[in-house]
Amino acid sequence: QGNFRRNVIRLWGSCSVTGLQNVSLLRASHIKPWKDSNNKERLTPYNGFLLIPDYDFLFDRGYISFKNNGSVLVSQRLSPFARKVFEVKDDLQLRRVFPENKEYLEYHRTEVFE
Question: What's the CA dihedral at 113, 54, 47, 71 to 10 degrees?
Fold first, then answer.
């Protein structure tokens, strides 16, 4: 996990959504979950986002995902109240999407996002 985190920090530099630069407050999150990934996928920074803890939690549990253009997808399981509490707005977006992220995002949308 240490090498993965360092590589994701090097790639993103700040939160992949908010741009928050204090990396000690951020989590390196696998797009395709660790348990479903091979060794190469587990270590590549392109299988990761740097996220604030709330977005990491929602992403890991399939409450949010992202389209290939970076725009957010919100699960119907996330209530309007939870959306408000977690500040999940319709205009939430990844700051960028690398071409190498897209295969992992596809997996997340089909296998993790509900």
Answer: 60
